[in-house]
Design a protein that fits this description.
The chain is an alpha/beta fold. The protein has two domains: about 45-140 and about 275-320, 3-Layer(aba) Sandwich (D-Maltodextrin-Binding Protein, domain 2), CATH 3.40.190.10; about 140-270 and about 330-355, D-Maltodextrin-Binding Protein, domain 2, CATH 3.40.190.10. The chain is about 45% helix and about 15% strand. The protein has 15 helices and ten strands. It has helices spanning about 1-25, 55-65, 80-90, 100-110, 120-125, 180-195, 195-210, 220-225, 240-245, 250-255, 285-295, 300-310, 325, 340-345, 345-355, and strands at about 45-50, 70-75, 95-100, 115, 140-150, 175, 235, 260, 270-280, 315. Strands 1, 2, 3, 4, 5, 6, 7, 8, 9 and 10 form a ten-stranded mixed β-sheet that branches. α6 packs across α7. It is globular, with a radius of gyration of 24 Å. The termini are far apart. The structure holds fe (iii) ion.
Length: about 350
């Protein structure tokens, strides 16, 4: 009789567990629906992100369907979201912060907006050099900052390294953004790590001397300056060319078609790469869900779509890049931990100021 009661209660527990599962599955994609017992389904993860792609929304929905965890999204500019996290402090709703550039993620870490995460899944899916040394942020997409050249005026055989663009033969032929731009800070920070402060400074001086104009505009504007004949080469991120080629602006399409992509330093230290990535916020109320969410974004299932939304490279090596990116060819990357981009940021800013890179 006693045995029977035990079996009965086990069956009852199993039934309850199963009903629980079913009810949370039914709740997917519908935040206002209710569990069997009438309580609101409270499983959620709150995201602050500087990304704004439709493809991302689809991925969030997929995550909701698979886990029953509702994704609440606040979109904004990276620096504004960081400021908001700072002001909100312990009261913040945000569990996950996503932004671009290891330099920005480093700033978030330094401002104590993030916390360390232990996850075998993230360690498995994301190469070590694309993760923070203290596990506070994780790369989710990879971008390359390369040389872009005018197809008619420049023979790619004239190109070799970033350093070569600092030589006198490129005088008045180079365009690149201002030194206030984080991508450039990270680029120079990588050189500080790879070649040391003095050589990095000499490079920055050479580029400042070779500029075809005072730095202005975003990366797309550098490609436009090359297409318009203002300069022969630009240093820029490849995903902007992807955006121009896949976009609806016919002029931009023409610009992107008139330039070629050259991966520098292939015989030496590799092309500069950076990431956009995510971290769990310091005051996350849903830490477990936050980790699950970042793990999902790093998965084979999500990586292709997440990277392709901005013509970037997946960080998960099991996932292939898009056809366009493949058409530009495979390339050797800088072999440094991207934490260095943040660690050398202040030194990079000092050097830019010293050499007069506006
Ligand atoms: Fe960008």
């Amino acid at each position: 009789m006693k045995k029977f009661t035990v079996i009965l209660s086990m069956m009852l527990a199993l039934m309850l567990a199963l009903t629980g599962c079913v009810s949370s599955t039914n709740n997917n994609g519908n935040s206002s629906s209710q569990n069997n017992d009438g309580a609101e389904n409270k499983e959620e993860v709150n995201l602050y992100t500087s990304r704004h792609y439709e493809a991302d929304q689809e991925l969030y929905k997929k995550f909701e369907e698979e886990t029953g965890i509702k994704v609440n999204v606040v979109e904004g500019k990276g620096d504004e979201l960081m400021e908001r996290l700072n002001i909100e402090g312990e009261d913040t709703k945000a569990d996950v912060f996503i932004t671009s550039d290891a330099g920005n993620l480093h700033q978030a870490k330094e401002a104590e907006l993030l916390q360390a995460v232990e996850s075998d899944v993230l360690v498995e899916n994301i190469p070590e050099k694309l993760r923070d040394v203290d596990n506070q942020w994780f790369g989710l997409t990879k971008r390359a900052r390369v040389i872009v050249y005018h197809k008619e005026r420049v023979n790619p055989e004239e190109l070799s390294t970033y350093e070569a663009l600092a030589e006198p033969e490129w005088k008045d032929r180079v365009v690149i953004r201002t030194s206030e731009n984080m991508y450039n800070m990270s680029l120079l920070a990588s050189f500080i790590d790879i070649m040391g402060k003095d050589e990095a400074k000499a490079w920055a001086q050479g580029i400042a001397d070779n500029m075809a104009r005072d730095p202005e505009g975003g990366d797309r504007d550098q490609a436009k300056a090359v297409a318009a004949g203002e300069a022969d080469v630009a240093i820029m991120n490849t995903y902007y060319l992807g955006g121009m080629l896949n976009g609806t602006d016919e002029e931009e399409k023409k610009v992107a078609e008139s330039v070629g992509v050259f991966f520098p330093n292939q015989e030496t230290t590799g092309a500069h790469i950076n990431i956009s990535g995510a971290g769990v916020t310091k005051h996350a109320k849903n830490k477990e869900n936050a980790v699950k969410f970042i793990e999902f974004l790093s998965s084979e299932e999500a990586q292709g779509q997440f990277a392709e939304a901005n013509s970037e490279y997946p960080v998960n090596e099991k996932v292939e890049p898009s056809e366009l990116l493949k058409s530009w060819g495979e390339f050797k990357e800088q072999d440094i931990n991207l934490s260095k981009l943040g660690e050398n940021q202040q030194e990079a800013i000092r050097i830019f100021n010293e050499v007069g890179w506006k």
